[in-house]
Amino acid sequence: MAGRVRATLSSLLILSSALLTLASGGATKVVQGQKTWCIAKPSADEATLAANLNFACSQADCSVLQRGWSCFYPDTLMSHASIAMNLYYQSKGRNYWNCYFKGSALIVTTDPSFGSCLYASA
């Protein structure tokens, strides 16, 4: 379990450094055809993560987060919120505004998938 926590923290630090920095007029632009994912900011508080998880799963199929499914572990709010936020972002067309979540999310270009949990990408 401690190894999973360390791996998750390491992944989140790497992912947070991979934030897209192509900005114009305050809007993030994505290079045509580039794969992107939406994850929770490591600094997001638990109440915000819980709200994001609930909202995203009310709009997208979060069945992969259920016990016994590929993305249940690690069973942390940060991990589950990130997966749910990405599912929402992907299902809504990968627009930067679909990864805002009141400033608690990041768009990354590094695939955050781990183990058997594959993050969706378009």
From TrEMBL:
GO terms for cellular component: plasmodesma. Residues 1-23 form the signal peptide. It comes from the Eukaryota. Pfam families: X8 (PF07983). Residues 36-119 form the X8 domain. Keywords: Signal. InterPro entries: X8 (IPR012946), X8_dom_prot (IPR044788). This is X8 domain-containing protein. The lineage of its organism: Eukaryota, Viridiplantae, Streptophyta, Embryophyta, Tracheophyta.
